[in-house]
Amino acid sequence: MPPRHGNLVLAAALLVLLASPRPSCAAAAPRRRDPVVVPVTRDPATSLYTIPVRYYDNLVLDLAGPLVWSTCAADHLPASLSCQDPTCVLANAYRAPTCNVTGGGGGGDCSKNVCTAYPYNPVTGQCAAGNLAHTRFIANTTDGKNPLSQVSVKAVAACAPRKLLARLPRGATGVAGLAASGLALPAQVASSQGVAGKFLLCLPRLGYGQGVAIFGGGPIYLGEGLPDFTTTLEYTPLVAKRDNPGYYVTANAIALDDARLPLPRGALAAAGVALHTTVPFGQLRQDVFRPFVREFEKGLNRSDAKVAAVAPFLLCYNASMLWNTRIGYFVPAVRLMLAGGKNYTMTGTNLMVDVKGGKACLAFVEMKSGDAGSPAVILGGFQMENMLLQFDSEKKRLGFARLPFYTSCSNFNFTRTQ
Ligand SMILES: *[C@@H]1O[C@H](CO)[C@@H](O)[C@H](O)[C@H]1NC(C)=O
Ligand SMILES: *[C@@H]1O[C@H](CO)[C@@H](O)[C@H](O)[C@H]1NC(C)=O
Ligand SMILES: *[C@@H]1O[C@H](CO)[C@@H](O)[C@H](O)[C@H]1NC(C)=O
Ligand SMILES: *[C@@H]1O[C@H](CO)[C@@H](O)[C@H](O)[C@H]1NC(C)=O
Ligand SMILES: *[C@@H]1O[C@H](CO)[C@@H](O)[C@H](O)[C@H]1NC(C)=O
Ligand SMILES: *[C@@H]1O[C@H](CO)[C@@H](O)[C@H](O)[C@H]1NC(C)=O
After folding, report:
1. Residue nearest to atom 12 of ligand 1 (CA)
2. What number is the average pLDDT over the span 205-221?
3. Would the CB of 405 count as within 6 Å of ligand 2?
4. Would you say residue 291 lies in a domain?
5. Sheet of 282-284: strands edge to edge?
6. Is the CB of 318 under 6 A from ligand 5?
7. pLDDT, mean over the chain
8. Nearest atom of ligand 2 to the alpha carbon of 150
């Protein structure tokens, strides 16, 4: 194996060895209840991620979604909430800019004590009007190692018509918004279960089994004898946007291995880096995408292995001609140099996707609506798989860590301790 990556692997192993295996105990702090764990499944057809919330009910994870919605049973009881009720106000705090449905009067039919919300499908961009209803989600508490005991989590969800499920995975019955808003799933689990206002997300790679999400945050153990991986998290501030409860961080530069990508002045300043579980591959704004692909190709310097590109990608190689390492194909590492001084580093495993015909392609596409207000970088599911991410709305920061090659997000032990 070429030396650069050998060192990286060694460094990752050392980091894990040095990390303390014991979480520090803050005896004086008020005791929080045990966090809530759910398995995360990647759907092969749509590349979306789902979680089970009740028997036979699966919701699509949407990091940018402000609500939880599902196709409620025909006989569901709408929550009796006036349109001035704080819950109804929260349900209508954010509305997708493309959502132009009318009806319900934006906040509810005030004469009937019914609260209307506007559930949104992040894949099709469609929305609909639907009543808020009380519901319960069934999950397990966890100590970070195994499930402990079953809990029924009280929540409020918007009811949507079946047609809003278009292009979601087969068997999905709605969307679990994970954004930093009052009626998204993390805030609802925090208030009904008494856990911290943060959650861990560890997305699985297709074909390796289930990943894991823990509402309330770490610790998290991903294999016998391995330490709590939240001790390896690095942090960067989350940037709040006025009209958008999704998650954004600031990048000061992008580096390929050690060379900073030459970008137009201010290209990264405006809208930063967004994280989306509903786009399968990363997207770069036009002014960032072009230099990025050009410099990546130059940095890899393997024109001998280059092959015709496969849409939607622009740069593809003959997979059998690239070096394969334990951290993916041997290609330049891409580092988002984030506010706070830490790098979100992606190696071959989060950069190169295998496509049919024995090709491996750079897993980024050019953003469609690339105006100056768009984020410069959107990290998609592929860029977050086998990364440990902790979204902390209380401390307003994102924790992130690349899992070492010898474990993965699919190594959480979902067997209950007897
Ligand atoms: C809502 O937007 C869609 C396309 O985004 C458009 O076709 C439709 O006419 C709009 N409806 C209203 C009521 O404005
Ligand atoms: C809770 O954990 C047990 C043991 O792994 C499992 O059988 C059960 O399905 C889990 N419950 C839910 C709702 O995930
Ligand atoms: C981040 O990446 C840049 C470019 O490779 C490097 O110079 C810098 O030392 C890295 N920072 C950290 C904290 O690793
Ligand atoms: C690119 O590869 C060629 C052939 O292997 C080599 O001669 C050249 O020095 C390389 N260029 C750079 C910039 O590494
Ligand atoms: C890749 O290279 C191998 C060996 O050189 C060759 O047999 C194969 O046809 C190439 N595949 C593509 C997609 O170019
Ligand atoms: C998972 O946890 C159970 C209960 O603690 C234990 O018996 C089992 O050996 C664990 N499985 C693995 C693969 O570590």
Report:
1. 100
2. 96
3. no
4. yes
5. 248-249, 273-275, 377-379, 282-284, 364-366
6. yes
7. 89
8. 1
- In a domain? residue 26: no
What pLDDT is stored for residue 369 in this prediction? 75
Can you say whether residue 144 is alpha, beta or left, with left for phi > 0 and alpha for psi between -120 and 50 degrees?
Answer: left
Report pLDDT digits (tens) over 266-287.
Answer: 889 877 999 999 999 999 999 9
Looking at the DSSP bridge assignments, the partners of residue 152 are: 138
Token reading at 185: 């799933």
Banded model confidence at residue 26, pLDDT cuts 50, 70, 90: very low
* CATH number for position 178: 2.40.70.10
Residue 222 domain-assigned? no
Query: What DSSP character marks residue 25?
Result: P
Q: Is the pTM of this model over 0.85?
A: yes
The closest ligand to the CA of 337 turns out to be 3
Lowest mean pLDDT among 11-20, 213-222, 253-262, 321-330: 11-20
- Say how many C-beta atoms besides its own lie within 10 A of residue 362's C-beta: 23
Q: Decide whether any atom of ligand 5 lies within 6 Å of the 321 Cβ.
A: yes
Pocket of ligand 1 contains residue 417 by CB under 6 Å: no
Q: Do 196 and 281 sit in the same domain of this protein?
A: no
Ligand nearest to the CA of 235: 3
Give me ligand 4 centre to Cα 301, in Å: 6
Nearest-atom number in ligand 5 for the CA of 359 is 13
